[in-house]
Each structure stands twice: as structure tokens, then as C-alpha cells.
From TrEMBL:
Family: Belongs to the glycogen phosphorylase family.
NCBIfam families, sorted: P_ylase (TIGR02093)
Protein name in the entry: Alpha-1,4 glucan phosphorylase
Top EC class of this enzyme: transferase
Swiss-Prot/TrEMBL cofactor(s): pyridoxal 5'-phosphate
Biological role: Allosteric enzyme that catalyzes the rate-limiting step in glycogen catabolism, the phosphorolytic cleavage of glycogen to produce glucose-1-phosphate, and plays a central role in maintaining cellular and organismal glucose homeostasis.
Length: 822
């Protein structure tokens, strides 16, 4: 087939007029879906609407790609195992500034945009904060003009769909792709082979240069890309999210199938497809560890091959890669890319190891998201060497280069050298992916000011000593387009009527709201919006999970991944203690409170799943006790995801950010609550520290030990049992849980969980309980003063603008990527 001739006219950009939109929706319904309006179902209308919006996005997408190609500037490549993008239709129609026109168009067809929008499935491409941050960053890069591509995996089932059965979490497959995905485009012309296992031999033509080797993989799969357009604000730029799907070289062994071995004939196909089936397969077994490592290498290798191919196509010489490409590693999942890029440069493009290493190091940068040593990925050396034999050679070569350098520096003793080594020799030998990402990057950033300083003092102490200029801070942010303008249009309209529309382009303009914090008329309007969102959430939860809650009560919300360091357990224990106090002292003026939880526990994380069960057991008892009716209620929202979050954040009165100090890298839920006018109760952890700085001490409720105090207490020999004995309120709550008050069917269900608090309490639940309880009493006092609460809520929204992901991305672009903005 002949290629289209250059200079052929392009179609005229499509119009945004509501009459034109209505006509096109009917055309898509007829000619793309095969239905007329009279017989169309809601999901048919959804598909037709998406196609009409998508056509206008494509105009901007093609223009953006053309500008990238003509500009010849530096590009950013964001590698992440997760992109929790959620539903895209409302995001896209809002950013393309066609929401009102589309609503009017559909209204003329007797269709409600809000009703059909609810049918769009959440893209199951992430789990929690890491993936949602990547999604916010992709949107912000398009908004501020960073020429960028995102790379990840096109999961068929994602993490899992959470159901609650008898209070227990049940994991079911998330079938978001069951009916196709109208937002994506297959790009099979950019498929790549990915290899695993096999043998490595010296390349015949360079026998005198052992650095160049020939890897002959035993297993090969094909990575095929699917591109999704990511629209920036006002549709000025549309970037690409490229997700990889795994396909077998031979989908079926026909001879074997015809011989009757039907399962065996599909073995290779099933093995390939397992790579992109599930996010975070359980790694408690060797098979699970193998699959995780295979997933990470699969998407990283495909992405790097694509980046190198694009660079050579546009710039010619692979040696200039670091001048034209900046690759950001979002956590350690794509860290194997450091060795993979060196392999591509050395074995495929004939570059000497020393030069290849410098190119790679200048190209990569790495974002660290955790201070937990066990969360910094590492792989058993035998597993790594079996699956990636050439990469193991290169890891050893890189390690030798780093350790020789360290040995020459005064003060690097054996312990320091051991700490920076890419190979952990303590016990089972393991490849440290965090160390590989660190040494293979020219910049390493933390995601809040506190986190970054603690990185230097803890997990990367010795690497920081070796490379003192490498660590920098880039405090996380969130995209206000989704987390206020789209999910809280009522608040957006109020703010626009009060201070004008400039904040839509520059979130820091929200500071102009500060002068209205004491204005009684504005306070009333602000709190009326909050009540509207609470009523909407109450109605939703009644229909969604049968929960009946009073919108006039305080909505006290903790929604995030279930993990012991995030301390949902502290919140639940407080609920039990509060339950006791309300029953014991009914004469006191208690603030009506609804505690709302949401989040998923990793399938193999026993204690996290037990905490979910405890939350539901406590809810069952408290919610059915007439003694506390109207004063305390507990709700666990099943299958917490982006769409649920869009309802919960705007309705929150109180934001629970109560992690053990020094353990949460940043958090972004705290920022989404803040912009929607919730007060934060929290520890001085992660970005809470910076939120406190921006809103002022008087507009946040802080409790508990600092990170330094936590570390000191552990070092001095912390005795949780003594603390519990001295706190009557805490002891009563723990005794009630441990004795089976909330689990009469199994009185010993929570014995181990509570014993853990008595015996070691690593996450300082007991140590911080009294402080937390007192802080909650302070919250009750503030709630009783409606004017004070309104003022504090307004102050939180007014001072949230700095936490925009646009600000974060501009800092990445200037300090790390060195890329110009439009």
C-alpha cells in the first residue's frame, strides 16, 4: 500500500457547538455502534459520547505529536508500574472545555450526561497513591507543556475488585476491559520482543572485548503497545500514555493441540498473558516473585526499546540519548531499566561499557516513595540470574565500578561499602533494586521535605555520603482539575463567583480566599456546599452498600491502602474507646460522628485483612446499639477506587492522616481532602508537615510523636505494655477487642492483632493513642463552634494551591529533567 503523500489536506478541526455535538453523537450511535436512538441503551450512549469527545482530542493529539517532532527538544519518559487514571470521560470533556456543550447536546436527545458517565468503568491500572500520583503527573505534564510519554502495563484485571463478605475482604477479578476500551489505540507496528532466561556468550565479532555479549533468551514474548491520549487543561496539549500488552510468539502449538494436549498447546500463550493479567501478584511464593520480576522487566525493556528507537529515528546518534531524553523511574519497579539500557547500548549499539554507563546515569532519574527497608524491592540472586542472566552480569559490573570508587574515599569502611553494594550479602544474597536505581540516576528525589531529609539519614545514608548532591526534594501534588473542579463543581462555582476564574489556570490564586475566611455570608455558602456533597454521599452509600448515615453528622474519613503503618487500627481502637465513653457519659455533649473507612489490603497481608474485618465487626456492634444512635456510626466502603474517591473527598469534614511519623513518604489524599475544605487530624509525617506550614498551626490538628521521637523511643527500649496500663481508656478498648466483644462467633479472632500491640507495637499505636484521643476531643470542640469550623475549612481550601501537581511538575522540569515548557 502506498504511503499518503506529504502535503495532503487534513480534516478541519471539529466544532464544539452543541447542535453539532448532538448530530455527531447520533451518527456515532448509528454508524459505529449500529443502533438508532430509539433502541440505544445507556452504555451505547456512553460509547457514542466518548467517540465524539475522542475525535476532538485526536485533533489536538496529532497537533501535539507534530510539534514534538518539529521542535526536536528534550522529551520526558515516565516509567511507572501503576497509572490509576480512573474514568476518563468527564476528565477529558472538562479539560477540552466542552462540558456544558455536551450536556446541552445530550439534553436535546433526552440523555443525561451524568447518568451515562456513571457507566464508564474505572481503568484497573493501579492500586493507591503511587498510581494516582502518576496519573496526576501525566495530566499536569500535558497542562504545563512538558513533552512527555508515560509507559506502563495494560493490566487485564488490575489489582482486584474488593467485595466484603461477612466483614472479610474477598478479592475478585476487575473486568474493566470486558467490553473494550474506546480510549485506546493499538500500535502493533511498535511491538518488541522481550526475552527471559537462556544463555549468554561472548559476541563472536568482539572476542577481545568481553564487555559485549550475546544473550540468547530461552523464552520470548511480544510486547504490543496501546496508546491512550492524556488531555491537558484547555486541550492545548495531549500527551500519550503507552501501555504494553503481552502476546506469545506462537499463540498455539497446533501439532500438540491436535494430538489432544489442549492445555499444553496453550501453555506459552497462557504464560505470556499472565504477564499483563494482574497488578502485584502475591510474591509469597517463588513463582509469585518470578512473575513480578518478569512483569517489571517486560514493561521496562519494551519501554526502553521504544525510547531508543524513537531517539534514533528523530536524532540519529544513540550517544546523544541523555541530551534528548529524561527517563523518570517511579519507584523501584522499573529500576531494572538501568541494567537494560546499558545492555542495549553495549550489546546492541556497540558502545563501550564506561560510556554506556555514563549515558544511562545521565538519562535516568529516580523517585523514591518509601522509607521502609522491606519495601525497597530486592530479588534473590539465583532468581534474578536465571531470568535475566545478562543483566546479572551488568549488575556485577556496575557494582564493581561503584564499590571501587567508594573504597577510594576516606571514611568508607566495610559497613558503608556493604550498605551501598547492589548485592545484599546479609543472609540470602539479593539484588537491591533501590540501590541500583540510586546509582544509575543523576538525580534522586523524595516526595516531601521530611521524607527527603529522612532518606539522607536512613535508607540511603551511605549512598548520600557517596553522592552528596544527588538527593533532592519534589513534594507531591494533585491535579485540581479532577480533585476539585470535576468532583466538586459546586465549590468551584462558589470560588469562581467569589475571586474570579484565575485559579483554574493557577491553583495558587486560591490564596485570595483567605480574606473571606471570616466573612459570615461566605462561610454560610461554603458550608452549604459541603452539606450538599454530604447529602450526595449519604444517598450514594445508601444505594451502594446499604449504609444509612446522617449528613448533619461530622464525616470523619480515612480512605487509603490498608497498611499497619497507616494506622487504620489506631482509628478503629479510638472508635471503640469513643463508643465506651459515649455510653458511660451520655450526659456530655458529644459531636455526632460518622467514621468512614475505605481501602484494599494486599491479598497476602494477613494483618491488613484482619483490620478490615475488625472495622466491619466494630461497625456491626456500634451501628446496632441504640445507646449511641445518632452519635457514632462506622462505615466501610467496599472497593475503594478513583470514582469512590471523587464522592468521598468533597464530602469529608475531617481528614485522617495518622500514619506513624517517619513512615509515610508524602501522601496525596491529605491534599485532596484539603482543597475540598476538610480539616486534617494528623501526625507530623509526610506532606502533613508542609500542609501545616501553609495553612498555619491554628488550622490543623496535630498529635503524636515526631519522626525523631519515634526513632528515639524505639532505640531507648519502648514498653507498650507499660503505656497501655497507664491509659484506662486505651486498655478498656483493647480488652474489649481482644476478649471477643466484637467477635462473639470467634472470641480469639483478634488476640494476635492486639498481642502485637502489647508486645512490640512497632507502629506506635499505644504510644500515640492518648495524644490522638485528646486531639479528637479538640476536633469535637471545634465542631461545636460552627463559625470556627467554617473558618478553618475555608483556610484549608485557600492555602491548598501550592499542592498542585502543576507546581510539582514545573519543579521536576526545571531541576531534574532540564526540559523547556510551552
Amino acid at each position: 500500500m502506498n504511503k499518503p503523500q506529504k502535503g495532503l489536506p487534513r480534516p478541519e478541526p471539529r466544532q464544539f457547538d452543541s447542535t453539532v455535538l448532538a448530530k455527531e453523537v447520533v451518527e456515532r450511535l448509528t454508524y459505529r455502534i449500529g443502533k438508532d436512538a430509539a433502541n440505544a441503551h445507556k452504555h451505547d450512549w456512553l460509547h457514542a459520547v466518548i467517540l465524539v469527545i475522542r475525535d476532538r482530542i485526536i485533533d489536538a493529539w496529532i497537533r501535539t505529536k507534530k510539534e514534538f517532532h518539529e521542535d526536536k527538544g528534550k522529551r520526558v519518559y515516565y516509567l511507572s508500574l501503576e497509572f490509576l487514571i480512573g474514568r476518563l470521560m468527564r476528565d477529558a470533556v472538562s479539560n477540552m472545555e466542552m462540558l456544558e456543550q455536551m450536556q446541552e447536546a445530550l439534553s436535546s436527545l433526552n440523555v443525561d450526561l451524568d447518568v451515562v458517565a456513571e457507566l464508564e468503568p474505572d481503568a484497573a491500572l493501579g492500586n493507591g497513591g503511587l498510581g494516582r500520583l502518576a496519573a496526576c503527573f501525566m495530566e499536569s505534564m500535558a497542562t504545563v507543556g512538558v513533552p512527555a510519554y508515560g509507559y506502563g502495563i495494560r493490566y487485564v484485571n488490575g489489582m482486584f475488585r474488593q467485595e466484603i463478605s461477612d466483614g472479610w475482604q474477598v478479592e475478585l477479578p476487575e473486568t474493566w476491559l470486558a467490553h473494550g476500551n474506546p480510549w485506546e489505540f493499538e500500535r502493533r507496528e511498535f511491538s518488541y520482543e522481550i526475552g527471559f532466561a537462556g544463555k549468554v556468550e561472548a559476541a563472536e565479532e568482539t572476542l577481545g572485548t568481553p564487555a559485549k555479549m550475546k544473550w540468547s533468551p530461552q523464552e520470548r514474548v511480544v510486547a504490543t503497545p496501546y496508546d491512550t491520549p492524556i488531555v491537558g487543561w484547555r486541550g492545548n496539549q495531549v500527551n500519550s500514555l503507552r501501555l504494553w500488552s503481552a502476546k506469545p510468539i506462537d499463540p498455539i502449538l497446533l501439532d500438540q493441540f491436535n494430538a489432544g494436549d489442549h492445555q499444553g498447546a496453550l501453555r506459552e500463550s497462557n504464560r505470556a498473558q499472565s504477564l499483563t493479567r494482574v497488578l502485584y501478584p502475591a510474591d509469597s511464593s517463588l513463582a509469585g516473585q518470578s512473575l513480578r520480576l518478569r512483569q517489571e522487566y517486560f514493561f521496562t525493556s519494551a519501554s526502553l526499546q521504544d525510547i531508543v528507537r524513537r531517539h534514533i529515528q528523530d536524532f540519529g546518534d544513540v550517544r546523544t540519548l541523555h541530551e534528548k531524553a529524561s527517563i523518570q523511574l517511579n519507584d523501584t519497579h522499573p529500576a531494572v531499566g538501568v541494567a537494560e539500557l546499558v545492555r542495549l547500548l553495549v550489546d546492541v549499539h556497540d558502545i563501550e561499557f564506561a560510556e554506556a554507563w555514563e549515558i544511562a546515569r545521565e538519562t535516568f532519574s529516580y523517585t523514591n516513595h518509601t522509607l521502609l527497608p522491606e519495601a525497597l524491592e530486592s530479588w534473590p540472586v539465583p532468581l534474578f540470574e536465571r531470568l535475566l542472566p545478562r543483566h546479572m552480569q551488568l549488575v556485577y559490573a556496575i557494582n564493581a565500578h561503584i564499590l571501587k570508587k567508594a573504597r577510594k574515599i576516606e571514611g568508607f569502611d566495610d559497613a558503608a561499602v556493604s550498605a551501598i553494594s547492589l548485592i545484599d550479602e546479609n543472609g540470602e544474597r539479593r539484588v537491591r533494586m533501590g540501590n541500583l536505581a540510586f546509582v544509575g540516576s543523576h538525580k534522586v528525589n523524595g516526595v516531601s521535605a521530611l521524607h527527603t531529609e529522612l532518606m539522607k539519614q536512613t535508607v540511603f545514608k551511605d549512598l548520600h555520603k557517596l553522592y552528596p548532591e544527588r538527593i533532592n526534594n519534589k513534594t507531591n501534588g494533585v491535579t485540581f482539575r479532577r480533585w476539585m473542579m470535576q468532583c466538586n463543581p459546586e465549590l468551584t462555582s462558589l470560588i469562581e463567583a467569589t475571586i474570579g476564574a484565575d485559579f483554574k489556570d493557577d491553583a495558587e490564586q486560591l490564596v485570595r480566599l483567605n480574606k473571606f475566611a471570616d466573612d459570615a455570608a461566605f462561610q454560610e455558602k461554603f458550608m452549604e456546599v459541603k452539606l450538599q456533597k454530604k447529602i450526595a454521599l449519604s444517598n450514594h452509600l445508601k444505594n451502594y452498600c446499604g449504609a444509612k448515615i446522617d449528613p448533619n453528622a461530622m464525616f470523619d474519613i480515612q480512605i487509603k491502602r490498608i497498611h499497619e503503618y497507616k494506622r487504620q487500627l489506631l482509628n478503629i481502637v479510638h472508635a471503640v474507646a469513643l463508643y465506651d465513653q459515649i455510653r458511660s457519659h451520655p450526659e456530655l455533649d458529644w459531636a455526632p460522628r460518622v467514621k468512614i473507612f475505605g481501602g484494599k489490603a494486599a491479598p497476602s497481608y494477613h494483618n491488613a485483612k484482619l483490620i478490615i474485618k475488625l472495622a466491619n465487626d466494630v461497625a456491626r456492634v456500634i451501628n446496632n446499639d441504640p445507646a449511641v444512635q445518632g452519635l457514632l456510626k462506622i462505615v466501610f466502603v467496599p472497593n475503594y477506587n478513583v470514582s469512590q474517591a471523587e464522592r468521598l473527598f468533597p464530602a469529608a469534614d475531617l481528614s485522617e492522616q495518622i500514619s506513624t511519623a517517619g513512615m509515610e513518604a508524602s501522601g496525596t489524599g491529605n491534599m485532596k481532602f484539603q482543597v475540598n475544605g476538610a480539616l486534617t487530624i494528623g501526625t507530623l509525617d509526610g506532606a502533613n508537615v508542609e500542609i501545616k506550614e501553609h495553612v498555619g498551626d491554628e488550622n490543623i490538628v496535630i498529635f503524636g510523636m515526631t519522626a525523631e521521637e519515634v526513632a528515639a523511643r524505639r532505640e531507648q527500649g519502648y514498653s507498650p505494655r507499660d503505656v497501655i496500663e497507664q491509659s484506662k481508656e486505651l486498655k478498656q478498648a483493647l480488652t474489649a477487642i481482644q476478649s471477643g466483644t466484637f467477635s462473639p462467633d470467634d472470641p480469639h479472632r483478634y488476640s494476635g492483632l492486639i498481642d502485637g500491640i502489647y508486645e512490640h507495637d512497632w507502629f506506635m499505636v499505644a504510644a500515640d493513642f492518648d495524644s490522638y484521643s485528646n486531639a479528637q476531643r479538640r476536633v469535637d470542640e471545634i465542631w461545636s463552634d460552627k463559625k470556627l469550623w467554617a473558618k478553618m475549612a475555608i483556610k484549608n481550601t485557600a492555602n491548598s494551591g501550592w499542592f498542585s501537581s502543576d507546581r510539582t511538575i514545573r519543579q521536576y522540569a526545571e531541576d531534574i529533567w532540564k526540559v523547556g515548557l510551552k
